[in-house]
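#lab-general

N.A. 3:47 PM
ok so I finally got the sequence cleaned up, no stray characters, all 98 residues accounted for. can someone with queue access submit it? mine expired

B.Y. 3:52 PM
send it over

N.A. 3:53 PM
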Amino acid sequence: MYGDPNQALFFGGMGIVSALVFGNMGAAYGTAKSGVGICSVAVLKPELIIKSIIPVVMAGILGVYGLIISVIISGTRKLSRFSVNFSITFSQGCPLRR
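B.Y. 4:20 PM
back already:
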């Protein structure tokens, strides 16, 4: 195996974070833009309001897609010995005792 396994864990974690962040930011942006479109449709043609809800649903699906991708990535990560010891030690709030 090439490289440090802890670097692989770091970049795997960054992939999970980026999938969640960018997926939800895109969903929020899409919901906001389609909300503006729904408001303008409600003023101009009130009979088309129900049809204009479809982009809001599609934007919500984008956020769920980011969540699914992050779960898939986190399922394929393998912890190394150092990262397990590091996590256990610092989650307890006490230094290593030898």
